[in-house]
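= Paired protein data =
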Amino acid sequence: MGIALSLALAAGIAPATAIAAETNSPVDAVVLQTAASSETAATEKDKAYAAMQEALKNLEAAQNAASPEKIARFNDDIARFQEFREKMVAQAAEERELLPAMQANVDAAQAKYDGAINRVSELQAELDKKLEMLKTLEALGYEEFVETTKQQIRQLQNEMVGAKSHVGHCETELRECQRCLRSQERRVNDCERSAEKYKAHSDQFIAWRDTLLDNLKKAQTAYDDACKAYEEAKAAADKAASPEITKPTETTPPSGSAQPAETTQPASSPATGKDAAPSSAKQANASNGKQANTTADKLANTGDPAPSAIALAGIAAMGLGITATATRRIKNSK
């Protein structure tokens, strides 16, 4: 930078122009841009590698949780619970087949009990009539009919005792039938509840097994995606670390540049002759070229470690000299 400044001062160029020529070198800009791109690619590669390692860790955990041994144990438990459920369903169906017959026994016992109750009621009504008749006969003094009525009353009373005893027997039989029916219904319900319980256990183990397998599948997919992303990031980082830079052999000024290579004097200018402008331009270019070459040669012999600054400053000096000459020619033509 110091050499560029010295050369600029010697050539009559502004220091800022020389510094800009050194720092704004196209090659240096490409190098800086390449370095930044390489650093970004390396950072993305590191992030992708960390993500891949995390995905691998999750995959190993999922593989451990869903190991073949654990899945086999889940399958054994599921099969066992399903077998118990099938047994309970079959037993419930078998026990349910006895319910209609037991219900019929209850109905028969109930009818028998109702008949015994009715028999007692009938005997009680007939006994009440005989007692009224006995009172009437005793009031009328019919001794023969009174004795007969008394025998009938004693017979009814004995039948009443037997009817009541039969009612008790029928009631006991009815309660036994009802108890058997309720017990059978409880057995059916127990079998059905056991079947539902075993089904719930089986469904729970199936859900646990499927969850482990689903987590393993998701972890495998995530790891595969992370590996693919790492490979892409690695390829991008390798490409950014060794880019192919092609140095331009020739720089063509843009069409709108204020530094033309050659200026032609208008033919209608009254200030000078036809060949005056080209002659002065050639002399100015030759003079400026010699001065720049002489200065560059002197500085190159000093052993400066930055020849690019010297070359750029010399080129800038030549360009400014040409521009100054061309400007004077245009002013003269105006």
User: Anything to note?
Assistant: The helical segments are 2-11, 15-23, 26-65, 68-96, 99-140, 143-241, 276-300, 307-333. The radius of gyration is 61 Å.
